[in-house]
Amino acid sequence: MGFESLRRSLLAGERVVAFTRADGAGLGARMLVWPDGRAEGELGAGDVDREALALATAETLPATGLREIEGVEVFVETFEPLPQLFIVGAVHVAIHLVHFARRLGFRTVVVDARSAFATVERFPHADELVVEWPADYLARVPIHANTYCVFLTHDEKLDNPALQVALEAGVRYVGALGSSRTHAKRVAALLEAGLAGELIDRIHAPIGLDLGGRKPEEIAMAIAAELVAVRNGRQAAGKP
Amino acid sequence: MLDILSDVDRWRADGQRVAVATVIRTVGSSPRPLGSKMAVSDTGSIAGSVSGGCIEGAVIEEAQSVLEDGLPKRLSYGISDEQAWSVGLTCGGEVEVLVERIDG
Fold it and tell me: What is the pTM of this model?
């Protein structure tokens, strides 16, 4: 049923349209079509396959639902890139944030150069746990538009170069932990590094919706709430 | 799909067979949108959901035969359907689900 290809595509953050026959002897036959015109599998009739290909490569991708294509009932399913969350800093807040974010449907990756922090024991539930300089990691992995980045290290050597990569890649959300004084220092450093002011303005700082909490799990929840607000098109007040 | 992927990966790595149920049609109020998925393994593990808990039991049962013979099934549940009363579709809508075995 093309599961493996679909799985790989979703994890890579690709858009893909799945066509599945919903009637007759061909029930369950599946064709996957990527918007660039690649296709895999068939629905069992040339004209149906051609029409499916046309639908999936059109400017507007088809809505998910049943549809009749050349007299055959087909379930069309458009998969947009999964929201993915990169958490830079395997700190205590990150442990709680992994839990909330995964529950909320984010593929969650934790990155930290410090192997003492980034351990499987601390992050058994992260979809990926990476011990690497965060800037190097973000520069080498595919970053699609549905990517959220949260910076929690409190260490400018780790945070700032990675922040720059994320902002220049045009991710959907960037938030950075720290007081307003810490943030002012960060802004100065990023300007110094040559980053454009309007990119720097995209950083959500102080990070998270204001829930008034101080404990790591409360901060994690405030961040998770902000991620949901952004995903649902409601930016936090006062943010770009 | 994301919500079931890590469970499905784990079960398949353990050598379990897995079926996936997908909501393909809804009429009236229904708690889960089109495309919602539930995965069922041959040891009875489940992940995800296709309703608010109303039809899951029935779908899990049907999934076992799909796991057995590999033939996909299209299932309908609704208030006009006697079976739906027995499984209790409290939302009052209709739901159709496609169940298939993951074979590759």
Answer: 0.66
